[in-house]
Amino acid sequence: MKESEIIRTLFGTTPPPEDDCYFLAPNRLVTTDSLSEGTHFLHEWSSAPILARKLVEVNVSDITASGGRPKECFLNLGLSPLSRKKEWIRAFSKELRKSLDQYGMKLAGGDTFSASKTQLTLTVVGTVEKPWLRSGGKPGDYLYITGSLGKSQLGFRALKKKSKKNIYQDAITHHLSPKSRYVILKPLQNFQVHACMDITDGLIQDAERLAIPSKGKLKIQIESVPLDPLALTELGLDLCLGSGEELELLFLSPLVLPTKLAGIPVTMVGRLEKGKPGVHFLKAGKQYLPKSRGFLHFAEEE
Ligand SMILES: [Mg+2]
After folding, report:
1. What residue numbers does the annotated binding site cover?
2. What CATH code is carried by the domain that includes residue 210?
């Protein structure tokens, strides 16, 4: 089954929530994310500290995308023969505490169990004043992307090819240790943001997840999309547009924003218009159809 069908089946007749976080109360939000050995990481690529950091960052990214601040968290650990060793647990715990401290977060509970492969799940609760939903976009809004796209996919491919070339080091670090855009939250809150999400499955799929809830036609100018130059040369356009786990923010605002906030590039890449909800990529004024859609959680035929 496809991920969307699995989610539909789980929720039955209730429509599944569409935002990065669930709002427990008007000012309280929660999210959860997992890292599973073999699916999201390999122990030979990621040390215990790298995994601890990534687990915190992917969750903080969802909280940030909803306009919130992380506060408490719950950790569920499925430990394999490798990860239940003293050295692994100690290294993981030390870095986890460091990462949580950095965001002023408190470990409030969790669960540990034995597993054949390492399974890491973090649930983060946070506070929010003005929530950013995916459904808040209005016709005429400008579409923005923070940072650039493509590096995560380039890093993943370099790791897979076991490439030792120095030029890939930055992309490999970006893939293994992505950073949330939490530092942009405060400066961005000074401006009107109508809708926001983080890029985890690639721009092609994620842009649709903003356009459909906002009930508009999202036009994206390919020439404006900030792509990592090395990733573009090595992988080509479509793979960069589909690069997942970037943790960049994709958002809609009625304003023309500064091109940099908190030192992070903020690039205008398109506009939301009235019309059939969906995404249109434009290249040299003509419609452009990427050949692949990017990261899929489950193969289509399963
Ligand atoms: Mg997300």
Report:
1. 20, 31-33, 40, 62, 110-111, 134, 198, 200-201, 245, 295
2. 3.90.650.10
Report the mean per-residue pLDDT for the chain.
95
Domain that holds residue 83: 20-128
DSSP output for 232-253: HHHH-HHHHHT------EEEEE
Distance 143 CA to ligand 1 centre (A): 17
Binding-site positions for substrate read 40, 245, 295
Per-residue pLDDT, 291: 87
Residues 157 and 279 in one domain: yes
Dihedrals phi, psi of 301, to nearest 5 degrees: -85, -10
- pTM, whole model, 2 decimals? 0.95
Distance CA 203, CA 237 (A): 12
Given the structure tokens 């009107």, which residue do they identify? Answer: 192
* CA-to-CA separations, 119 to 68, 109, 115, 130, in angstroms, rounded: 26, 16, 8, 33
pLDDT attached to residue 159? 94
- Say how far apart CA 140 and CA 162 lie, in whole Å: 46
What count of residues does the chain have?
A: 302
Cα dist from 204 to 10, 50, 107, 189, 222, whole Å: 25, 28, 35, 26, 11
Asked if residue 13 belongs to a domain, the reply is no
Q: In DSSP terms, which residues pair with 25 in a beta bridge? A: 28
Residue where a domain terminates, one of 128, 152, 175: 128
Neighbouring CB atoms inside 10 A of 78's CB total: 20
Strands in 80-169 per DSSP E: 106-114, 119-128, 142-146
Distance 231 CA to ligand 1 centre (A): 23
**Ligand 1 center to 60 CA (angstroms):** 10
Q: Are residues 190 and 262 in the same domain?
A: yes
CA of 66 from ligand 1 middle (Å) equals 9
Domain count, the chain: 2
User: What is the structure's pLDDT at 190?
Assistant: 97
